[in-house]
C-alpha cells in the first residue's frame, strides 16, 4: 500500500496500539482497549495481570463474539464521539467497579456487563436500545446510562430499570453539554458516589441556544438535522446539577450557575461530597468546592482569578489520601503551571518552577504522578514529592507520557522518541524493570509508517519558536531550491513540534515527494507556560501569521539555497486551515499557495467556550473579532487557495468556508472548494483520507512548480 493509503487505513498508524488504560485499584491488573491487528478496526477489551513473575496478557471481551456489526451507534453517541474525535468502533469506552472484577460497556447502543476474571462470556444487560455512556457504581450492583432523553439505572442482578429522570426535547441529561465536551475536555455527565448510593448528573437546557441545520447536498431528499449551537455572543446552556439516591429520594445542587456558566471539572473522590470546578463565562474566575449530595449545599474551598483567562489541569482538583485539597495553580511570578495544596482557602504551590504540569494521573501518600512539559519539545512523566523533590522519566526532545497510575505507585506510560516512529507502552512498578504492553501496531508491514522521519529542530526569532524541518531522505549534495510547505496548526494550546518521530510521519512523506516541510509552533500553542499561552489573547489572527513568517525566515537563513523562498505553500486543518488561508490572504509576498481544511473564517460563528476565552464577548471586545475575521481580506487574494471541508461538520460549520468563498466570488477572486459529503470535522473514511492526501500533494506540485 502507498503511504497515504496505509496512513488512512490504519487511522494514522494507531490501529493495533493499546489505549484507554485503567489500572485496577489493587494495581494487579491493567485494562486497555486494542484492535486485534493493525488492519482490524474493532476495539476489544484486554487485560494484563501483573505479578512477581512478570505480566500475562488476556482477552477479556472479544467484540466479534457479541456483535456482527459494531459500527452502528445511536446519534447522540455519534455526537459524543465527534466531540472526543473518536473514529474507532467496538468498545470505545468502559467502566469498572471498585474491585476491577466487573466491567460494563455499550456496543451499538446495547448494554453489556462482563466479569473480568474467569472465562464467562460478556452478557447483555436489559433490553434497552440506544444506550449511551454506561457507568458501573463502585460496588458493582448498578449501571447508570443515558437512553434518549432519560437517565436510567439498571440492577446488575435483576435487570430491573429505574428512570432517574426524563427531560424535555432540547435538553440533555447525564451527558456533557456541547461546550464542556468540545472546549473544556469534560466528556462525562453523570458520576457515582464512592459508596454507590448516590448518582450525580448534569442537566443542560439548550432551548435558548440558536438552532443550526446540517444539510448534505448529496441527499436532497433528506431533511436537514438540527443542533442547538452556542455561537459566540449568544446563549450558553442553562445548567443544573442533580442527585438521585438509591433510596428513591432526589436533591438539586445549590450551585450558582447564573454566575458561573461553565461546569469545568467534576469528580467524586471523597464521601464528603462531589468536587467541582465552576468558571465564569469570561474565563477569568473559577471556584472549587464540594456539593453535599444530601442537602445540595455548595461549600467553597478555593477561588482563583486571572486578568486574561484561566484554564484547568487534567486530574485536578483532587484530594490526597490524608484529605488535603490539591488544585491547579497559575504562578505568574515564575511563569509556571504548578500544583498547590489548599488550606483555609489559601493555595501554596509545591511543584517546581519551570516544570509545566500538564496532567495529574495519580496521588500517593507522599507524591504526585504527573505529566509535565519540561521544554518546548519534551514531555516527561514525573514523580513530584510534596516536599518539592522530583524524579523525571524522559530525555530531551522526547515524549514520555504517564497514562494512568495508582496510589501504590504503578504507572502506565507511553514512550516516544524523535528517532523512531514507534510508540512503546510500559507498566512501571517501583524497584522493577518496566513491563512492555504488546502493541499490534509495531509490525513493519502492518502499521509502522513506511517512512523514517529525519527532523531538524530550530528556534526562530526572539520568542524562540520551536520549528521542525524535514527534507527528502533522498537528498544529496546536489539538492537545491526545494519548494517549502509550511504545515502548522498554530492555534491556542495545541503544539505539533514534540519529540516523537511518529508525529512527523506524514510530513516526512510529503518531504520525500520533493519538498522542504516546516512545522512551527507559534506563541499560544502550549507547553511553554502562562505568559506564552496568554500572548494570543485578542491577537488570535495576526499573531500566528507573524510567527509563521518568523519560522520561515529562520529556515531560509539556516538552509540558504537548499530551499526556495519564492515557492512557499502552507496547509492546515481546523485552526491550521484558518491560519493557512490567512497566510496567503494577508502575506502573499511570503506565501504562494494554501490549502485550508475545515477553516474557521469568522470567529463570530464559532462557539462561546473557545472564542470568548481568546477574543472576549463580541458585543464588547469588537476589535479582536475584526482582527481575526478573514472575510475582510477577500479582495486581497492573489495566490491559489484550496478549501476542503465536510458538509456535516458540526464543530467548524461548512458555513465558514461558504462565507469566505462567497466573499471571494464577490471580489472576483478565483479559488477552489472541495466539499466532502457525509464528512464531519475530520475525515475518517480511509478512501477519502487517502485521496485527500494525494489531492493536496498534486495541488502543491501544480502551484509551486
Descriptive account of the structure:
This protein has 705 residues and is α+β, with helices and mostly antiparallel strands. Among the domains are: 313-419; 455-703, Rossmann fold (3-Layer(aba) Sandwich). Strands 37-38-40-39-41-42-43-44 form an 8-stranded mixed β-sheet, sandwiched between helices. Strands 1, 2, 3, 4 and 5 form a 5-stranded mixed β-sheet that branches. A hairpin with a 2-residue loop joins strand 21 and strand 22. Helix 1 runs antiparallel to helix 11 (686-703). The longest helix is centred in the C-terminal third of the chain and has 18 residues, at 542-559. The chain is globular. The model has no long low-confidence stretch (mean pLDDT 93).
What labels would you give this structure?
single chain; 705 residues; alpha+beta; 8-stranded mixed β-sheet; 5-stranded mixed β-sheet
* CA-based shape: globular
Structural class: alpha+beta
Strand content: 35-45%
- Rg calc: 25 Å
- Strand segment tally: 44
CATH topology of one domain: Rossmann fold
What is the number of helical segments per DSSP (H or I, 4+ residues)? 11
Indicate the CATH class of one domain.
Answer: Alpha Beta
Q: What is the CATH architecture descriptor of one domain?
A: 3-Layer(aba) Sandwich
Low-pLDDT regions: none
Distance from first to last alpha carbon: 27 Å
Mean pLDDT: 93
The CATH superfamily of one domain is known as: Alpha/Beta hydrolase fold, catalytic domain
Q: Percent of residues in helical segments?
A: 10-25%
Q: Can you list the strand order of the major beta sheet?
A: 37-38-40-39-41-42-43-44
Largest sheet geometry: 8 strands, mixed
